[in-house]
Amino acid sequence: MTEVREDSGNSSGRLGLASTNARQLGPHPAGAGSRTQPSTRYLAKHTKGIPPENAQIAGFTQWLIRDHRVDDTTVQALRDRLGDLQLIELTGTIGYNNMVAMSLNTVELEARPGAEVLVK
After folding, report:
1. Contact by Cβ (8 Å): 24, 68
2. How far is CA 85 from the centre of its chain?
């Protein structure tokens, strides 16, 4: 399991990650372990024009939203690139934006007349 804990070796009080074999906090949904990372072809199609370092984050985001978990290889690649704190911040930002979207969708909030709207 990956847990967030205060890094006692760091006087700044930053949070660190302690890893063990299982990453989950609850049971895996049926078949979740059999899903694979978004393929290079899939990412190339859905991240056209996005720099590779941003495509990596887009793939992580899509996988996290889809499966609520991400494989160890992807997590380690992002941890190596971003560090523990920024990986936690990225994951929290993804979750926060999903919460806001769900809240807005629940009450079917629409943009005010004349507002710029992002189209999918």
Report:
1. no
2. 13
